[in-house]
Design a protein that fits this description.
Structural class: alpha/beta
Strand content: 5-15%
Shape: elongated
Strand order of the largest sheet: 2-1-3-4-5
CATH class of the largest domain: Alpha Beta
Helix content: 55-70%
Number of domains: 2
GO biological process, one term: phosphorelay signal transduction system
Protein name: Two component transcriptional regulator, LuxR family
Order of helices and strands: EHEHEHEHEHHHHH
GO molecular function: DNA binding
CATH superfamily of the largest domain: Response regulator
Organism: Methylobacterium nodulans (strain LMG 21967 / CNCM I-2342 / ORS 2060)
Number of strands: 5
Number of helices: 9
Keywords: DNA-binding, Phosphoprotein, Transcription, Transcription regulation, Two-component regulatory system
Distance between the termini: 17 Å
Length: 205
């Protein structure tokens, strides 16, 4: 994700959109308004920031919006706005990936705090994505033999065992180990393991 973090407000009620735009802008937060979930999905391929959406809307409602956002590579944090009678829907929204829900009518300060928390989560996620992408690129730079040695190291095997498994001398294992540690920019075996696990989660997720 790239660009400025924006609060995307998705609500079919014009008065609500305008009120939230004023509130967010008064707190110095960039905001973009969308009159429906369909309009949002049609205009946005990715989002840097967060989404604030009403849960009850004609057509694609807040729950369905969350389901569709799950298909994105890096879905943004979503806050859903609910009425007092919509707690079951709010719980369902959380199950579908919403990071928070806030009941109408809500306190301005509580709303802004929730938005800032979501934006902070979005920033941390973006940084994490960049770090994992760098790790994946480093792994791709390894030779086939270096990758084999790394897999064995991550599995907790000693150099002698790795050498026996791969049919090479322990000295050769040490050379490959030194090279792959340098390429991976890993200062220790524990750091290498953390990198490998992060890349595995990225691949599986």
């Amino acid at each position: 994700m790239s660009g400025e973090a924006v609060v995307h407000v998705v609500d079919d009620d014009l008065a609500v959109r305008q009120s939230l735009a004023f509130l967010l802008a008064s707190d110095g937060l960039p905001v973009r308004l969308h009159e429906s979930a369909t309009a949002f999905l049609d205009s946005m391929a990715e989002v840097t920031g967060c989404i604030v959406t009403d849960i009850r809307m004609p057509g694609v409602d807040g729950i369905e919006l969350l389901r569709r956002l799950k298909q994105w590579d890096s879905p943004p944090p979503v806050i859903v706005m609910t009425g007092h009678a919509d707690v079951p829907l709010a719980v369902e929204a959380m199950k579908q990936g919403a990071v928070d829900f806030i009941e109408k009518p809500f306190d301005d300060d509580a709303f802004l705090a929730a938005v800032r928390s979501a934006l902070d989560r979005s920033r941390r996620s973006a940084v994490h994505d960049e770090v994992v992408s760098a790790i994946v690129r480093r792994i791709a730079s390894l030779s086939q033999r270096e990758r084999q040695v790394m897999d064995e190291l991550v599995a907790g095997k000693a150099n002698k065992v790795i050498g026996r498994d791969l049919g090479i001398s322990p000295r050769t294992v040490e050379i490959h180990r030194a090279n792959l540690m340098a390429k991976m920019q890993a200062g220790s075996l524990s750091e290498l393991v953390r990198m490998a696990l992060a890349a595995e989660r990225h691949r599986d997720g």
